[in-house]
Amino acid sequence: MSYLLPNEFVTKLVDAGEAKIYMGTRDTLIRAFMAGATLALAVIFAVTIAVQTGSFLLGALLFPVGFCMLYLMGYDLLTGVFMLVPIAWLDKRPGVTLPRMLRCWGLVGLGNLCGALFIAFFGYMNFSMGGTEAISDVGLKMMAVGESRTVGYQDAGLAGWIVLFLRGVFCNWMVSMGVVGATISTHVSGKIMAMWMPIIVFFYLGFEHSVVNMFLFPIGLMMGADFTLYQYIVWNEIPTVLGNLVGGLTLVGLVLYTTHVRTQAKRVFS
């Protein structure tokens, strides 16, 4: 079959979460590095399209190419393991403990960060001709986004932090649906279609993705954007990571696991 039933693909998700725990440190870091780099390059691709065509919608429609590539290659994003590993823990899979889950998250986050910074350095060099020319229009757009999504939230105070957290929650609702999409078909075309749809929603609506931000804000700082590293960490990355964790775990992982693995007994009518 090209389509797997929910009880079949959710079991595959639990298996995948267990496999993340047992993966070697080297492999975890390499796969996470490549995921961060691939996603960051897709951001450059999408922003370039939006700036050159004047259509952000077109950029959002094409951004998922990066997400599809990295998951077809078996790479890992922090947002994905936020959803996958906890359901393996809830399923009491052998060896899946809380400390090992936290270690997995830490390694994947570190790898994603290194990959995103690698592309951020390339982007800075590319948009400024190695620092010898004025920042290009695409670079200026990234700087403006970084400023609005740090200083803008800070200016709103507590309300800004809450909105940022909620945008992180809704982001990983959609992104984790994309991760699920990679498992619901046995055909590459089916996987791509299922992954593509929710990623468009997250990107076009401007939700906050922790790994995207590991690229977007450092490159802004490299190019001289008007915000600080402190503002990026406190007024974007921390609430975004927390929101991504809550969104992926509750709105996707727990929901699918509860209703398709720990399914409630059927009602009996007399």
From TrEMBL:
Residues spanning the membrane: 29-51, 57-90, 102-124, 158-184, 196-221, 241-259
This one is known as Formate/nitrite transporter family protein
Does this UniProt record's set of keywords contain Manganese? Answer: no
Membrane protein topology class: Multi-pass membrane protein
Localization, per the record, is: Membrane
Cite a GO CC annotation: plasma membrane
Q: Which PANTHER family match?
A: FORMATE TRANSPORTER-RELATED, FORMATE_NITRATE FAMILY TRANSPORTER (EUROFUNG)
Matching entries from Gene3D superfamilies are given as:
Glycerol uptake facilitator protein
| Principal location class | membrane
Highest taxon in the source lineage:
Bacteria
Q: Which InterPro entries match?
A: Aquaporin-like (IPR023271), For/NO2_transpt (IPR000292)
Source organism per entry reads: Hydrocarboniclastica marina
Q: Give the family per the record.
A: Belongs to the FNT transporter (TC 1.A.16) family.
GO terms for MF = formate transmembrane transporter activity
Keywords, sorted A to Z: Membrane, Transmembrane, Transmembrane helix
